[in-house]
Amino acid sequence: MARIVIIGAGIVGLSVARAALKNGHEAIVLEQGPVPNPQAASFDLHRMIRYQYGSAEGYTRMVTGAFDAWDRLWDDLGTDHFENTGSIAISLAPDDYAEKSLKTFQAIGLNHEVLDREGVERLCPHLTLPEGAWGVVAARGGPLFASRIVTDLAQWVVDHGAEIEANCKVVRVDPENGIAERADGTTVEGDLLVIAAGAWLPGLLPDRYGDNAVYRQGLCYVEPPARYKESWRNAPAIASLGDHTGYTLPDRRGAGLKIGYSAHRRLARPEQHGFDSDLEAESAAILGAFKPYFNEPDGYQPTRIQVGFYVLDPSRRFKVDQLGRGLVVTNCDGQMFKFGPLLGERIVGMFEGAESAADLSRWAAGH
Ligand SMILES: Cc1cc2nc3c(=O)[nH]c(=O)nc-3n(C[C@H](O)[C@H](O)[C@H](O)COP(=O)(O)OP(=O)(O)OC[C@H]3O[C@@H](n4cnc5c(N)ncnc54)[C@H](O)[C@@H]3O)c2cc1C
Question: Tell me, what DSSP letter sits at residue 236?
Answer without folding.
Answer: P
